[in-house]
Write a sequence for this structure.
């Protein structure tokens, strides 16, 4: 269209002050939109992290809040503590066992939920529910389920005849059972996320590859173990790493369910750091315990990034 | 090797019939092409033969045996998909070996077969690589090798050339034909590309709206189209069609030529062509215009090979003609081909 037949001059179309178009510049708009997130991260993640590392080299307590550097003394004290060593072991056991459970169960669930059936929507909704519930509330529900006197699980076991009718397991009162309970609740909580991630991963496997395997003469199990699961591996890795990080750093389940008991037998690093640093007032020691988690988490984070990268490429 | 047959095969999705009663029978070792526009049901038909889709009605027979209730792996067929569907996490060797492993063939035999197939397709040097390292053409050959080692009774190919660029496609087409001739296995090939269909098929089945419109040799399909759909779908540019005396008369663009070029003895039918535009395409010239005697507004296309050097001017009336033997007649209502009709009062 020419200027002549629109009845307008070309010069008339270029208008307005340049300032109006400042936000059209990506170089400006990008940083501007990122700013709130960066401020948030620096203030609420970065600053506390630096403080924690700083505290871990001091003998600061709530009663005497001065930064008095003592070098590695705090770490030495922490390492000598048997409860700390127990917590460290518990954290590792809890993380690994619960994630193993999650991998197996979420894979089974994802395959089951892929099939079309009536009420599939509702089933998916139910499975996602634990993830949407605040951890504390979900755990309180479990606290009731595992109650020493009124546990419905005990009642069911009694009805089935696995334990004496009216008998009690005292789930949270015995060392091993308490640890098992913590692991089970942790797995229950992480299951939805892993399942959803796997479902998404599954839908990214091209239909034609599955059909090719079918035509190539592969049975269901061969297709599962030789085609689908290997193709799902990278995405499973992502799900597991998320689970590892969430489980490794979580203290809510232990705090609500057992309070670390009985006799500190279910303490994990996060809960022990809290009890020692906040409840006990030894800020320095609490910080030192928490700092032990740092290298492990940094490793996990690096792995997540690498996996995510790889998944993008292929 | 086996004969594939379908009997009144139907497949409906909801109210929509994707395949609407198809009867087909291949011959032993034949290369049959299913040709049609997208959505004509050709892929659904192929998938039913493969066993990936259950027919709503009718029967699929392979080697004179009804296979409706057999899963794909029991049908002794091999299929090459449009995307090739190679297993991305396996090497080329493992990809080709997969059907053999699935059947429990022992290691030595596997090795022998893999080497045989790889040699036949010239991909020995790729055996250690993974699919993502391969080019489109190489992937296609790996997919063929994987299909080949099963020694299937039937090959099913679903648009295997559509992911290749134009140059490679021509080469791969030639290779496919050569390959099929060598192994001599009955092959059903799905495509929407008429050039592929004409070039590859011993016979072509033209599909539209879930039905076979015509089945025949490429020659038959092109020169004796059974109805107006086939006449306009096959051939580029498509056949010119005009209403005339309650029927449709058609002729191919390459048959509409300057009067001097058409031999007089053939009983030529002259037309006054109002030329609007001439397109020069190297090997051909396309002449666009109208023939007011037939229709005042319907465009007509003439295709002149470069061997015809007669000058054709734009915005002028030129004397063109079609040999009578090259006219085709169709029923106006049904579009089916009918006997030749005398054309009255044309040209002169």
């Amino acid at each position: 269209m020419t200027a002549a037949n629109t009845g307008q001059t070309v010069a008339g179309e270029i208008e307005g002050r340049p300032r109006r178009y400042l936000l059209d510049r990506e170089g400006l708009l990008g940083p501007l939109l990122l700013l709130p997130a960066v401020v948030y991260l620096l203030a609420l993640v970065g600053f506390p992290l630096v403080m924690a590392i700083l505290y871990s080299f001091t003998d600061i307590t709530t009663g005497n809040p001065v930064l008095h550097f003592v070098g590695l003394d705090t770490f030495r004290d922490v390492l000598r503590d048997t409860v700390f060593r127990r917590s460290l072991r518990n954290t590792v056991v809890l993380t690994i066992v619960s994630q193993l459970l999650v991998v197996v169960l979420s894979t089974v669930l994802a395959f089951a939920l892929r099939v079309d059936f009536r009420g599939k929507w509702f089933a998916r909704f139910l499975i996602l529910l634990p993830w949407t519930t605040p951890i504390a509330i979900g755990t309180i529900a479990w606290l009731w389920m595992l109650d020493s006197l009124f546990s419905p699980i005990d009642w069911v076991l009694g009805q089935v005849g696995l334990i004496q009718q009216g008998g009690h397991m005292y789930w949270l009162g015995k060392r091993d059972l308490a640890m098992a309970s913590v692991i089970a609740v942790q797995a229950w909580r992480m299951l939805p996320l892993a399942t959803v991630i796997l479902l998404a991963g599954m839908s990214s496997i091209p239909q034609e590859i599955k059909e090719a395997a079918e035509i190539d003469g592969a049975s269901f199990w061969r297709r599962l173990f030789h085609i689908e699961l290997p193709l799902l591996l990278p995405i499973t890795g992502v799900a597991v790493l998320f689970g590892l990080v969430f489980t490794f750093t979580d203290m809510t389940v232990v705090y609500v369910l057992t309070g670390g008991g009985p006799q500190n037998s279910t303490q994990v690093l996060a809960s022990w750091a809290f009890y020692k640093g906040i409840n006990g007032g030894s800020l320095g020691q609490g910080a030192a315990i928490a700092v032990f988690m740092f290298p492990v988490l940094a490793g996990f984070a690096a792995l997540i990034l690498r996996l995510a990268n790889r998944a993008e490429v292929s | 090797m086996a004969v594939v047959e379908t009997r009144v095969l139907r497949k409906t999705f909801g109210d929509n019939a994707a395949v609407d009663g198809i009867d087909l029978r291949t011959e032993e070792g034949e290369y049959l092409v299913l040709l049609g526009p997208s959505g004509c049901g050709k892929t659904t038909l192929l998938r039913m033969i493969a066993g990936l889709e259950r027919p709503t009605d009718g029967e699929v027979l392979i080697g004179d045996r009804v296979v409706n209730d057999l899963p794909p792996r029991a049908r002794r067929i091999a299929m090459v998909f449009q995307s090739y569907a190679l297993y991305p996490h396996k090497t080329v060797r493992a990809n080709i070996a997969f059907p053999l492993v699935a059947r429990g063939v022992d290691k030595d035999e596997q090795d022998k077969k893999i080497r045989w197939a790889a040699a036949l397709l010239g991909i020995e040097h790729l055996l250690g690589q993974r699919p993502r390292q391969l080019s489109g053409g190489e992937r296609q050959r790996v997919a063929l090798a994987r299909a080949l080692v099963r020694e299937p009774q039937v090959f099913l190919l679903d648009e295997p050339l559509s992911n290749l660029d134009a140059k490679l496609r021509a080469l791969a087409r030639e290779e496919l034909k050569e390959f099929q001739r060598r192994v001599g296995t009955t092959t059903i090939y799905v495509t929407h590309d008429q050039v592929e269909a004409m070039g590859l098929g011993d016979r072509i089945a033209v599909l539209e709206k879930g039905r076979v419109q015509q089945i025949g040799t490429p020659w038959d399909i092109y020169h004796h189209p059974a109805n107006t759909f086939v006449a306009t779908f096959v051939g580029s540019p498509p056949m010119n069609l005009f209403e005339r005396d309650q029927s449709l008369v058609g002729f191919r663009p390459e048959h509409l030529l300057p009067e001097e070029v058409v031999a007089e003895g053939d009983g030529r039918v002259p037309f006054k062509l109002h030329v609007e535009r001439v397109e020069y395409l190297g090997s051909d010239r396309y002449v666009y215009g109208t023939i007011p005697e037939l229709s005042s507004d319907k465009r007509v296309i003439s295709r002149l090979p470069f061997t015809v050097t007669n000058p054709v001017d734009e915005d002028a009336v030129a004397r063109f003609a079609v040999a009578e033997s090259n006219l085709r007649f169709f029923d106006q209502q049904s579009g089916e081909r009918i006997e030749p009709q005398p054309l009255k009062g044309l040209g002169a």
Observations:
- Chain B has two domains: 4-223, 239-338.
- The interface with chain A takes residues 50-52, 71-73, 77-79, 81-83, 85-89, 98-99, 102-103, 132, 146, 150 of chain B (CB under 8 Å).
- Residues 166-183 of chain B form the longest helix (18 residues).
- The domain at 4-223 of chain B is CATH 3.40.50.300 (Rossmann fold).
